[in-house]
Amino acid sequence: MFIQTESTPNPATLKFLPGQTVLEMGTADFPTSDGAEKSPLAERIFKVPGVSGVFFGNDFVTVTKAEAIEWDHIKPAILGAIMEHYQSGQPVMLGEAQTASGHADHSGEDSEIVGQIKELLDTRVRPAVAQDGGDITFHGFDRGVVYLHMQGACAGCPSSTITLKMGIENLLRHYIPEVTEVRPVGL
Fold first, then answer.
1. Which of 54, 81, 137, 187 is least surrounded by CB atoms within 10 angstroms?
2. Pair 145, 181: CB distance under 8 Å
3. CB neighbour list of residue 73: distance below 8 Å, 6 or more residues apart
4. Domain 110-184 falls in which CATH fold?
5. Which Gene3D superfamilies match (predicted)?
Protein backbone atom coordinates (compact mmCIF):
# COMPACT_ATOMS: atom_id res chain seq x y z
CA MET A 1 0.00 0.00 0.00
CA PHE A 2 1.33 3.41 -0.99
CA ILE A 3 -0.07 6.45 0.82
CA GLN A 4 0.53 9.84 -0.76
CA THR A 5 0.69 13.01 1.29
CA GLU A 6 -0.11 16.55 0.21
CA SER A 7 0.40 19.80 2.01
CA THR A 8 -2.64 22.02 2.60
CA PRO A 9 -2.94 25.80 2.93
CA ASN A 10 -2.99 25.17 6.69
CA PRO A 11 0.61 24.45 7.81
CA ALA A 12 -0.69 22.47 10.82
CA THR A 13 -2.58 20.06 8.57
CA LEU A 14 -1.50 17.37 6.09
CA LYS A 15 -3.68 15.45 3.65
CA PHE A 16 -3.11 11.70 3.38
CA LEU A 17 -4.36 9.83 0.29
CA PRO A 18 -4.48 6.07 0.90
CA GLY A 19 -5.39 5.29 -2.72
CA GLN A 20 -8.78 3.86 -1.80
CA THR A 21 -12.14 5.07 -0.58
CA VAL A 22 -12.13 6.42 2.97
CA LEU A 23 -15.85 7.31 3.22
CA GLU A 24 -18.47 6.30 0.66
CA MET A 25 -20.61 9.34 1.45
CA GLY A 26 -20.29 12.53 3.45
CA THR A 27 -17.48 13.50 5.78
CA ALA A 28 -16.48 12.77 9.35
CA ASP A 29 -14.82 15.40 11.52
CA PHE A 30 -12.95 14.69 14.75
CA PRO A 31 -11.64 18.13 15.86
CA THR A 32 -10.53 16.44 19.12
CA SER A 33 -10.14 12.84 20.24
CA ASP A 34 -13.62 13.05 21.82
CA GLY A 35 -15.86 10.82 19.75
CA ALA A 36 -12.99 9.04 18.01
CA GLU A 37 -14.26 5.73 19.39
CA LYS A 38 -16.83 5.84 16.54
CA SER A 39 -13.96 5.27 14.12
CA PRO A 40 -11.21 2.67 14.48
CA LEU A 41 -9.12 4.69 12.00
CA ALA A 42 -9.51 7.99 13.88
CA GLU A 43 -8.80 6.24 17.17
CA ARG A 44 -5.60 4.73 15.74
CA ILE A 45 -4.41 8.10 14.37
CA PHE A 46 -5.14 9.90 17.67
CA LYS A 47 -2.80 7.44 19.42
CA VAL A 48 0.09 9.19 17.65
CA PRO A 49 1.39 11.81 20.11
CA GLY A 50 0.90 15.33 18.75
CA VAL A 51 -2.20 14.64 16.64
CA SER A 52 -4.90 17.19 17.49
CA GLY A 53 -7.54 16.59 14.79
CA VAL A 54 -8.66 14.07 12.16
CA PHE A 55 -11.03 14.58 9.23
CA PHE A 56 -12.25 12.06 6.63
CA GLY A 57 -13.38 12.84 3.10
CA ASN A 58 -14.27 10.52 0.24
CA ASP A 59 -10.70 9.56 -0.63
CA PHE A 60 -8.53 11.31 1.93
CA VAL A 61 -7.66 11.63 5.60
CA THR A 62 -6.65 15.04 6.88
CA VAL A 63 -4.59 15.18 10.08
CA THR A 64 -3.96 18.30 12.15
CA LYS A 65 -1.00 18.42 14.52
CA ALA A 66 -0.29 20.34 17.69
CA GLU A 67 1.67 23.54 17.11
CA ALA A 68 4.77 22.45 19.06
CA ILE A 69 5.18 19.24 17.02
CA GLU A 70 7.12 18.97 13.75
CA TRP A 71 5.68 16.97 10.84
CA ASP A 72 8.98 15.13 10.40
CA HIS A 73 8.53 13.64 13.87
CA ILE A 74 4.96 12.32 13.52
CA LYS A 75 4.34 11.81 9.79
CA PRO A 76 5.89 8.29 9.72
CA ALA A 77 3.75 7.18 12.69
CA ILE A 78 0.58 8.56 11.03
CA LEU A 79 1.42 6.76 7.77
CA GLY A 80 1.95 3.58 9.80
CA ALA A 81 -1.38 4.00 11.61
CA ILE A 82 -3.28 4.46 8.33
CA MET A 83 -1.53 1.48 6.75
CA GLU A 84 -2.19 -0.72 9.81
CA HIS A 85 -5.84 0.23 9.73
CA TYR A 86 -6.35 -0.76 6.11
CA GLN A 87 -4.45 -4.01 6.61
CA SER A 88 -6.60 -4.84 9.67
CA GLY A 89 -9.79 -5.03 7.60
CA GLN A 90 -11.69 -2.90 10.14
CA PRO A 91 -14.24 -0.37 8.89
CA VAL A 92 -13.41 3.33 8.93
CA MET A 93 -16.60 4.05 10.89
CA LEU A 94 -18.32 1.63 13.28
CA GLY A 95 -21.90 0.43 12.88
CA GLU A 96 -24.39 3.22 13.19
CA ALA A 97 -21.81 6.02 13.37
CA GLN A 98 -23.11 8.84 11.22
CA THR A 99 -21.13 10.57 8.54
CA ALA A 100 -22.38 14.02 7.80
CA SER A 101 -23.79 15.39 4.58
CA GLY A 102 -22.68 18.39 6.50
CA HIS A 103 -25.42 20.91 6.03
CA ALA A 104 -27.66 21.99 8.89
CA ASP A 105 -31.40 21.71 8.28
CA HIS A 106 -33.26 24.94 7.65
CA SER A 107 -36.96 25.50 7.18
CA GLY A 108 -39.14 28.56 7.01
CA GLU A 109 -39.55 31.50 4.72
CA ASP A 110 -35.91 31.46 3.58
CA SER A 111 -35.93 27.77 2.61
CA GLU A 112 -35.71 28.52 -1.13
CA ILE A 113 -32.70 30.81 -0.61
CA VAL A 114 -31.08 28.24 1.69
CA GLY A 115 -31.60 25.58 -0.99
CA GLN A 116 -29.73 27.77 -3.49
CA ILE A 117 -26.94 28.40 -0.96
CA LYS A 118 -26.52 24.65 -0.29
CA GLU A 119 -26.56 23.89 -4.03
CA LEU A 120 -23.79 26.43 -4.70
CA LEU A 121 -21.76 25.13 -1.75
CA ASP A 122 -22.11 21.52 -2.97
CA THR A 123 -21.31 22.22 -6.63
CA ARG A 124 -18.80 25.07 -6.48
CA VAL A 125 -17.23 25.34 -3.04
CA ARG A 126 -16.98 21.93 -1.40
CA PRO A 127 -15.17 20.17 -4.28
CA ALA A 128 -12.50 22.89 -4.31
CA VAL A 129 -12.15 22.88 -0.52
CA ALA A 130 -11.85 19.06 -0.52
CA GLN A 131 -8.80 19.47 -2.76
CA ASP A 132 -7.20 21.28 0.19
CA GLY A 133 -8.23 18.56 2.66
CA GLY A 134 -11.23 20.20 4.28
CA ASP A 135 -14.92 20.91 4.06
CA ILE A 136 -17.24 23.86 4.47
CA THR A 137 -20.86 23.25 5.38
CA PHE A 138 -23.98 25.35 5.78
CA HIS A 139 -24.79 26.20 9.39
CA GLY A 140 -27.46 28.88 9.13
CA PHE A 141 -28.93 31.89 7.33
CA ASP A 142 -30.26 34.92 9.16
CA ARG A 143 -31.12 38.33 7.70
CA GLY A 144 -28.73 38.08 4.77
CA VAL A 145 -25.85 36.51 6.72
CA VAL A 146 -24.75 32.98 5.81
CA TYR A 147 -23.06 31.07 8.62
CA LEU A 148 -20.65 28.34 7.51
CA HIS A 149 -18.84 25.64 9.50
CA MET A 150 -15.24 24.94 8.51
CA GLN A 151 -13.77 21.46 9.01
CA GLY A 152 -10.55 19.57 8.42
CA ALA A 153 -7.74 21.66 6.95
CA CYS A 154 -10.09 24.68 6.76
CA ALA A 155 -10.55 24.89 10.53
CA GLY A 156 -7.87 27.19 11.86
CA CYS A 157 -6.30 27.78 8.45
CA PRO A 158 -4.64 31.20 8.16
CA SER A 159 -6.13 31.74 4.69
CA SER A 160 -9.66 30.63 5.63
CA THR A 161 -10.87 34.18 6.32
CA ILE A 162 -9.74 35.28 2.86
CA THR A 163 -11.37 32.19 1.31
CA LEU A 164 -14.63 32.99 3.10
CA LYS A 165 -14.71 36.70 2.36
CA MET A 166 -13.14 36.96 -1.07
CA GLY A 167 -14.20 33.65 -2.51
CA ILE A 168 -17.34 32.20 -1.00
CA GLU A 169 -19.00 35.49 -0.03
CA ASN A 170 -18.43 36.96 -3.49
CA LEU A 171 -19.74 33.79 -5.15
CA LEU A 172 -22.90 33.63 -3.05
CA ARG A 173 -23.59 37.36 -3.35
CA HIS A 174 -23.20 37.13 -7.13
CA TYR A 175 -25.77 34.35 -7.54
CA ILE A 176 -28.06 35.10 -4.59
CA PRO A 177 -28.77 38.84 -4.09
CA GLU A 178 -30.32 38.18 -0.65
CA VAL A 179 -26.89 37.18 0.72
CA THR A 180 -25.05 40.14 2.22
CA GLU A 181 -22.28 38.48 4.23
CA VAL A 182 -20.62 35.15 5.08
CA ARG A 183 -19.33 34.35 8.57
CA PRO A 184 -17.65 31.29 10.07
CA VAL A 185 -19.05 29.50 13.13
CA GLY A 186 -17.28 27.32 15.65
CA LEU A 187 -18.63 24.01 16.83
1. 187
2. yes
3. 50
4. GMP Synthetase; Chain A, domain 3 (3.30.300)
5. Fe-S cluster assembly (FSCA), Scaffold protein Nfu/NifU, N-terminal domain
Distance, CA of 67 to CA of 128 (rounded, Å): 26
Question: Hey, what amino acid is at 151?
Answer: Q
Domain boundaries, the chain: 4-88, 110-184
DSSP assignment, residue 27? Answer: B
pLDDT in tens, 64-110: 999 999 999 999 999 999 999 999 999 999 876 555 556 667 667 78
Question: 62 by DSSP, 3-state: which?
Answer: strand
Q: What is the spatial distance between Cα 21 and Cα 5, in angstroms, rounded to a whole number?
A: 15
How many CB atoms lie under 10 A from the CB of residue 106? 17
Q: Are 135 and 126 in contact (CB under 8 A)?
A: yes
Order of all β-strands in the sheet with 4-7:
4-7, 13-17, 61-65, 51-56, 28-30
Instruction: Write the pLDDT tens digit of every residue in 99-127.
Output: 555 666 766 778 888 889 888 888 888 87
**What is the topology classification, in CATH, of domain 4-88?**
Ribosomal Protein S8; Chain: A, domain 1 (3.30.1370)
Those residues whose C-beta lies under 8 Å from the C-beta of residue 51, and which sit 6 or more positions away, are: 45, 63, 64, 65, 66, 74, 78
Closest CA to 150 of 37, 31, 68: 31
**Residue pair 171/124 in contact by the 8 Å Cβ criterion:** yes
